[in-house]
Design a protein that fits this description.
CATH architecture of chain B: 3-Layer(aba) Sandwich
Helix content of chain B: 25-40%
Number of helices of chain A: 14
Largest sheet of chain A: 2 strands, antiparallel
CATH class of chain B: Alpha Beta
Strand order of the largest sheet of chain A: 1-2
Distance between the termini of chain A: 31 Å
Oligomer: heterodimer
Order of helices and strands of chain A: HHHHHHEEHHHHHHHH
Structural class of chain A: mainly alpha
Distance between the termini of chain B: 36 Å
Structural class of chain B: alpha/beta
Number of strands of chain A: 2
Number of strands of chain B: 10
Radius of gyration of chain A: 20 Å
Strand order of the largest sheet of chain B: 6-7-8-3-9-10
Radius of gyration of chain B: 17 Å
Strand content of chain A: under 5%
Number of helices of chain B: 10
Number of domains of chain B: 1
CATH superfamily of chain B: P-loop containing nucleotide triphosphate hydrolases
CATH topology of chain B: Rossmann fold
Shape of chain B: globular
Order of helices and strands of chain B: EEEHEEHEHHHHEHEHEEHH
Largest sheet of chain B: 6 strands, mixed
Chain lengths: 351, 234
């Protein structure tokens, strides 16, 4: 195809086929934003332990799964979903219910599968949980958000509604499972030791690999399938999508379904990585999620992925100097910094 | 029987009523142009016909069926496609993807239709993998029209297709519109460029303040001294 050679006529920097496949041209502003994000991390590298970077990438993988759903929902529904973190917590607890309450009754129990701390039941619970939260998110849209949209409610009203949903879900989780710390059945396992004092917990590898697989699947869906393209079209221009005959209700259901499923998986993985479940776990995760989405550019799934890794690594690196309980503050600082310096984020549109 | 007949259409946004009872009629195969000053309701009438703005009273009959009150998806499926004046492409998607979205409701293989669009607009074929957001104004307008044609519509609604284009490109757009019409697609046109569009129109309507002011054949409106004074620059 000669379409590649037609590139010089538009004023973007040469970016190589790989990035163009990802649907991002490299403008000078975008390159400097990427550089700034990269330097933020690279600048600290000489002073830090590589092990923290590894931890950061693992945390970033979890953030990415949540952030991609959050950014999709924002792009298509123009809703900043404050309940997204609580969808994660709900997922973690539904998996707990399956692993702790349901599967033992049919004789499926266990922990310490191979090198992992968790057992086979968690693997069974993952897809079931994803499905449950996806359906829950679709139902909540039909129950609440669709009614508000039909009345042409403003973005602020939608966000306030999602805040209400967040509080309600958290209350429900606390009511059913109590506010006590829970955890999936686990057995302690050896971490992998690599050169330069890098230690990788096997669970972390599992988390990262699963995140890569799921993010790739979402990428393929958005790029190649009819419904994925319709989602991008609706995000680009909702009115034109309507008059193109695109079934926007179907698009909305898919968006919540994908967002909910990814959030559920993220919640389970977070519970695995942190080795505990708390009703507040999702709410506390909201700032890293929003920081990743804003850093990447609101509405851009690819941006959310990059943003999540940057935020995750930054949060872990910070623990070398400051108390780990301030990790969310690091994410918050990144978010504020981006909003001040480049509000549209790395991959955001000019608008 | 008229292909499209809007009768006493009342429509608007929120508290504001823009159309106070507009009627237009278009027979199969015709090009019909609506002109009028800014804010007279030309674009609102188009949006009301295609279902983006609710028709509060009156009716819109297309192929004998009252389509007012149906949603855009239903109306588009019935063979009536619409090109908005601005924001009429999906900017982050490639030209080919834009055309695929135009064909969203088609269940058959529409590749041949894409090829036909590339015949009609050769510029688009050359840059099929470019993002619509990077196209020039003229190319973008061509893509917007091609997108709307993907469903083989019976009637095409064009809202100011020449707006914001360089004079050299305007003629190209009108020539394509003539081509599309001679291929059997009826066209309802809203235009600022009244001279050019009335010349090729079977019928023209002048709206003012949300009501019908004048109507006649295109050439007759062109010769009408009142129209000439107000809309054609004397």
């Amino acid at each position: 195809m000669n379409s590649v050679s037609s590139q010089p006529q538009n004023l973007t920097w040469p970016s190589g086929r790989f990035l163009r496949r990802f649907g991002v041209g490299m403008s000078p502003g975008r390159i400097s934003a990427l550089l700034a994000a990269g330097l933020l991390i690279l600048g600290f590298l000489p002073f830090t332990k590589l092990g923290l970077v590894v931890n950061g990438l693992i945390l970033g993988s979890v953030i990415a799964l949540g952030a991609i759903g959050l950014t999709l929902v924002y792009g298509i529904l123009k809703l900043g979903n404050f309940a997204h973190g609580d969808y994660m917590a709900l997922g973690a607890y539904i998996a707990f219910f399956i692993v702790d309450g349901v599967l033992p009754r049919v004789g499926i129990e266990g922990a310490g599968l191979g090198p992992f701390t968790f057992g086979f039941p968690v693997l069974i619970a993952l897809p079931l949980t994803a499905l449950a939260v996806a359906l829950g998110a679709i139902a909540l849209d039909a129950l609440i958000y669709r009614r508000l949209r039909d009345r042409a409610a403003s973005t602020a009203i939608l966000m306030m509604a999602s805040l209400g949903v967040a509080i309600a879900i958290r209350g429900l989780v606390q009511l059913i499972w109590s506010g006590e710390t829970q955890h999936y059945p686990r057995e302690s396992r050896q971490v992998y030791h690599l050169p330069m004092d890098v230690r990788i917990p096997p669970d972390g590898l599992f988390v990262a690999v699963l995140a890569v697989v799921l993010v790739s699947a979402v990428y393929a869906l958005l790029t190649y399938t009819k419904i994925g393209k319709a989602m991008r079209a609706t995000s680009d221009n909702p009115t034109l999508a309507l008059v193109s005959g695109i079934n926007t209700r179907q698009v909305v259901r898919w968006t919540w379904g994908i967002g909910g499923a990814l959030a559920a998986v993220a919640g389970v993985l977070l519970a695995v990585v942190q080795a505990q479940l708390l009703p507040i776990m999702g709410w506390k995760f909201l700032i890293p999620l929003f920081a990743a989405v804003i850093l990447g550019g609101i509405g851009s799934p690819y941006g959310a992925l990059i943003g999540a890794l940057v935020v995750g690594v930054s949060m872990e690196l910070s623990t070398q100097w400051i108390n780990p309980s301030y990790k969310p503050a690091v994410a918050f600082a990144i978010m504020i910094g981006v909003l001040l310096a480049r509000p549209r984020g790395i991959f955001g549109d000019a608008a | 029987m008229a292909l499209l007949e809007a009768s006493n259409v009342v429509a608007g946004y929120g508290e504001t009523e823009v159309l106070h009872g507009v009627s237009i009629k278009l027979n199969a195969g015709q090009v019909v142009t609506i002109i009028g000053p800014n804010g007279c309701g030309k674009s609102t009438l188009m949006k009301a016909i295609v279902g983006l703005v609710r028709v509060r009273s009156g009716s819109v009959h297309f192929r004998g069926v009252d389509i007012s009150g149906h949603d855009p998806e239903w109306i588009v499926r019935s063979g009536l496609c619409y090109v908005p004046q601005s924001d009429n492409v999906f900017p982050s998607m490639t030209i080919r993807e834009n055309l695929e979205m135009g064909a969203f409701v088609r269940r058959d293989d529409y590749q041949s239709r894409i090829d036909e669009m590339f015949e009609l607009f050769p510029d688009l074929r050359r840059s099929a993998r470019r993002k619509a957001g990077t196209l020039s104004g003229g190319q973008r307008q061509m893509l917007a029209i091609a997108r709307a044609l993907m469903l083989d519509p019976v009637l095409l609604l064009l809202d100011e297709p020449s707006a914001g284009l360089a004079p050299a490109l305007v003629e190209g757009v009108f020539n394509r519109i003539k081509d599309i019409n001679s291929a059997g697609v009826s066209i309802l046109l809203v235009e600022q460029n009244a001279k050019e569009s009335l010349r090729m129109s079977d019928r023209g309507y002048v709206l003012s303040g949300g009501v019908n002011q004048l109507q006649d054949t295109g050439p007759a409106l062109l010769d009408n001294p009142e129209v000439g004074r107000v809309y054609l620059g004397g």
